[in-house]
Amino acid sequence: MIKVVNPIKNNDCSSNIKDFEVPKFSKAAGAEKIYERDGYIILRVKRGYIVYNTRKRFENGHTHIQSFEMAKTIIDNNIRKKRPKTNSIYLIESHIRVTNDSKYKKMLQELLASKEERTKDNKYHNKNMCSSF
User: pLDDT, tens digit, for every residue of 109-130?
Assistant: First the structure.
């Protein structure tokens, strides 16, 4: 509970004090809730945004994102159970972190495994050098 004194009124001290509760959605220091949709919220923090699924514990149901538009896209994809178009492994992991749906989570994990498998062997091979041997 935070007490704030109104400096404008000076005649009665008891009427100058107002009680404010600290909001429960301020999970990180300096976080400000700027967007909410179907149990998901976006918090603005010093360096970017936090997407948080309010139906999960904060430790297990949040992810850090650089842009507000990408944060909204993650929420939209999770609500509509859409496959993300991104090739970024971090963003796919972010989708997995904030989802509740086990079928959607399984689909994302399969997508992540295929992306990781594809990036393992993507080393550059000079075809001209390899064919001369």
Answer: 999 999 888 776 666 555 665 5
